[in-house]
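If you are new to this repository, start here. Below is one unmodified record pulled from the training split, so you can see the exact layout before writing a loader.
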Amino acid sequence: MVGIQATFFNKKAPEFMKRVLVDMSLTSLHHGHIRLLQKAAQLGHVVVALSTDDEILKAKGFLPLLSFEQRKEIALAIRYVEEVIECKWLIDLAYLDFHNIDLLVHGDDNVNPVPPERLVVFPRTDGISSTALSNRQDT
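And here is the target side for that same chain:
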């Protein structure tokens, strides 16, 4: 047991754990993100696939206030996150295989082209989204 505790303390998961991917842009961080990461951590070693600045610009039409490296630092500070890797806007099977990912965990707004056997979908947190936060800020 000491080996497993020391392993987790050093943010290294035991080899028997699944590698679980959560894709995010982290242009803002809210409790819905934390709840999704917490659920993902119950399934295995959490890897955050963090969208690059250019991908956010293409998909959302703006550059994030924080750089990729700053957003990565924030993601790594979350206790449920073991690792952060760079990603494009959409995750596909080739990406999962290349990074040895067992499962993609996503909210129920998922549009990633990933087969159902490699996908775990959770309901989004009611009343919160990055878009809603952004809209509040604009008013």
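Two things worth knowing about this chain: Residues 14-138 form a domain with the Rossmann fold fold (CATH 3.40.50.620). The two ends are 52 Å apart (CA to CA).
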